[in-house]
Specification:
heterodimer, A: about 110 residues, mainly beta, 5-stranded mixed β-sheet, 4-stranded antiparallel β-sheet, B: about 110 residues, 11 strands
């Protein structure tokens, strides 16, 4: 079963920051928070992941609360190409247990 | 550097038939996972192969089987196809030795069972 809760849909104006929330209140100490996105009919695309600290890469930033019970994915300047379903996933850090349990995600629509 | 590749891209079968889907992992990756994604749903984990053996399995019947070859490529076989097997089948690869074993997905094979 998915261990995360996300809003089903969100809109964001083009050029503005998109902030996608995720609740994972039952996360354990050895579980990562992963974000993927899926553009219509394509394979999921890895965005970013973290364990405790905030992370940033060329695509996005991941902010994890101090208690690790929630996180926010930030797309700093959303473009129309960022329209997709975004999945927040918690995953064990145990070697050999890296299978992913997807929920239904958040459908982000970037509006011109 | 090629990413994860899958073949074929699309496939149409009839009920009761058997199908084989193929996956080549990203260069340097040794672990392959398979997922099924029904229309409007998130991907569901089928199984994972490492060192040519099935290491983890999701809640899928024995009609779903797989294989991993010495070059790390993998096949997914589905026997006695049902209409409900119509879905996008996704392959993901990862490295057992890579940091946190991030999985990277291929474009998928869309299977339609008539």
């Amino acid at each position: 079963d998915a261990k995360t809760t996300q809003p089903p849909s969100m809109d964001c104006a083009e050029g503005r920051a998109a902030n996608l929330p995720c609740n994972h209140s039952t996360i354990s100490g050895n579980e990562y928070v992963y974000w993927y996105r899926q553009i219509h009919s394509q394979g999921p695309q890895y965005i970013i992941h973290g364990l405790k600290n905030n992370e940033t890469n060329e695509m996005a930033s991941l902010i994890i609360t101090e208690d690790r019970k929630s996180s926010t994915l930030i797309l700093p300047h959303a473009t129309l190409r960022d329209t997709a379903v975004y999945y927040c996933i918690v995953r064990s850090s145990q070697t050999g247990a890296n299978n992913l349990f997807f929920g239904t995600g958040t459908r982000l629509t970037v509006i011109p | 550097d090629a990413g994860v590749t899958q073949s074929p891209t699309h496939l149409i079968k009839t009920r009761g038939q058997q199908v084989t889907l193929r996956c080549s992992p990203k260069s340097g990756h040794d672990t392959v996972s398979w997922y099924q994604q029904a229309l409007g749903q998130g991907p569901q984990f089928i199984f994972q192969y490492y060192e040519e053996e099935e290491r983890q399995r999701g809640n899928f019947p024995d009609r779903f089987s797989g294989h991993q070859f010495p070059n790390y490529s993998s096949e997914l076989n589905v026997n006695a196809l049902l209409l409900g097997d119509s879905a996008l089948y996704l392959c993901a690869s990862s490295s057992e030795t890579g940091w946190s074993e991030t999985q990277y997905f291929g474009p998928g094979t869309r299977l339609l069972v008539l």
